[in-house]
Amino acid sequence: MLREDIELILRSAGVENFARESRWIVQESVSDEAALQAARRRAAGEPLQYVLGNAPFRYITLDVDPRVLIPRPETESLVEWVLKHAPHGASVLDLGCGSGAIALSLAHERPDLQVTAADLSLDALTLARHNAVKNNLEDRVEFYHTDLFSAFSGRKFDIVAANLPYVTLAEYPLLDAEVRDYEPRMALVAEDDGLALILQSIAELDKYLNKPGMAIYELSPPQAARTAEALQSHGFEAAIVHDLCGRERFVTGVR
Ligand SMILES: C[S@@+](CC[C@H](N)C(=O)[O-])C[C@H]1O[C@@H](n2cnc3c(N)ncnc32)[C@H](O)[C@@H]1O
User: Fold this and answer.
1) Residue 8: exposure state from Cβ atoms within 10 A (0-12, 13-18, ≥19)
2) What is the pTM of this model?
3) Is residue 61 a part of any domain in this protein?
């Protein structure tokens, strides 16, 4: 009965995967009233992951709320690339860690890595630290409050893995309301056609990356060529890496 009521609420609101989402809402709610309340939030347009309060990412589950971007499936491929290329014992910086998805997955899947997570948002760091405890990884990851590399004066990493904001100012108003109205703007938008933070961090990479060292950036396909050129002009061998849908989603730099 409850399940049917919830399906009706979601279907009437135009939620595409109403059957599957109703099942999750019922499974994860502590009472009928909580399930109905969750369905009403979802029907009003709130992302399912915020309604449920968590999101799966690779082999861990992260608590999420509007303080952090909901981790996206394509970012799992960024983690895959680091896992494949990181030498034993490498130090890795997750720059713009948000919920902690990248850093905590790396720590979970590669106990040999020395993992650091950093973000400009104190709210995001609070939740990322909470997610470390939730996944029993609090002793495995260091957290820093920083604007790009500013907190890391004199320190170098073997690998920088960055999913920094890359939505352009022009794209932002056109995003799905589910993204624009709920997810933090500072996790999404960057100036200079979405590339301001990525290009600034590439310009500073030399100071914060060991030799040999490598970096990987997640971005949108139209930004790949310019990012690869920037890495090349700073002395890196650049490559464009596709996501599982075949889109140019990552640019890597190795030196
Ligand atoms: C696209 S979200 C990625 C979050 C997470 N890494 C993930 O993949 O789900 C970008 C993150 O970068 C952070 N950020 C924005 N500007 C930054 C800056 N100047 N320095 C460090 N982090 C920044 C945001 O707060 C946000 O958490």
Assistant:
1) middle
2) 0.97
3) no
